[in-house]
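#struct-help
A.M.: can someone run this one for me? Single chain, 362 residues.
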Amino acid sequence: MTVLDVRSLNRATLARQLLLDRAGLPIPDAVAHLGGLQAQEPQEPFTGLWSRLRAFDPAALSELLAGRRVVRTHLMRRTVHLLTADDVLAWRARFGAMLRQRVLGTYRRELEGVDLDELAAAGRAVLADSEPRSMGELARAVADRWPSAGPRPLGELLVAALIPMAQLPPRGLWRVKAGVRNLPLASWLGREIDPLAPDDEVGQALVKRYLAAFGPAATADLRAWSGLAGLPAAVKAVREELVAFRDERGRELLDLPDALRPDADTPAPVRFLPAFDNAILGYDDRTRIVDDAHRGLSVAGARVVLVDGRVSATWTVAADTVVVRPLRRLTRPERSAVTEEGSELASFLSDGESDRIRVEPT
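D.P.: on it. Structure tokens below:
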């Protein structure tokens, strides 16, 4: 079985994540290809798509949100993601059990004795007037029936698990700050979510969609991205459609036969990634893109800079200036490339008012 070294896996990841060459895809196609973008920080998907698409227009993404073609919702790993409406409706039922388990795991004591069906019915009754509500408003509306649970656990269970919800605009629009207002997906999109198929067609589709955007990858990586534990049967069902490799640790990696696997020596441009980018969080073994010493940066919400395909710096914005803090010594050509790309990012984030960048000393 062919062994793929870390650099080969890195280049495959960059290619699948549209980070090796910016793509000319329409925004909905890019969001679908990526399997969604992590979006608990509302403005971060704009940077993520700017780094991946040619001539990306942030206003166009706002229009897609307002036009209900892309949606903000809890899904993978119970975190907020930006997904196409079609994917949300097709996938949401498959994630339902995981979402419930994760909320119950956090609030098991508080929610002891709460009948989930009764709580869901109560929440739906409150939302039947089609008025968007915050999590707190919804929780307070049902809290008198379960006073010992407390509003926070009830609210999270309703919004993140029991009732498939959309987070409505203006939350998530370009350069807009707004609180979270929720409405059932069926009300917002005008369509019910798809029911679970008995042969787990959705699980099989998820395996192939994940590999298209993240492969070659191990089943542990698939589990880390999705949060789902029940995909071994889906992997087995599509196994004959896949090819297999091994990494340098001896793990089996699965992939689509015709997917991009560039040469390990393919040049990789500098790329600025937003907080919680799935190019990093989408794996259990993240060494293909970030050193173990810096693994914690991704879960801490640091924005990172890829140099030669690897996490080599963090970045922030202060006074319309992109500030880069290297994690290692950058060569002169690398520093020049970081400065050039960072200047373009500063211009994007400030709507053309500033192209300032400062690279701190190592």
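A.M.: thanks! Residues 85-106 form the longest helix (22 residues).
D.P.: also worth noting: The two ends are 41 Å apart (CA to CA).
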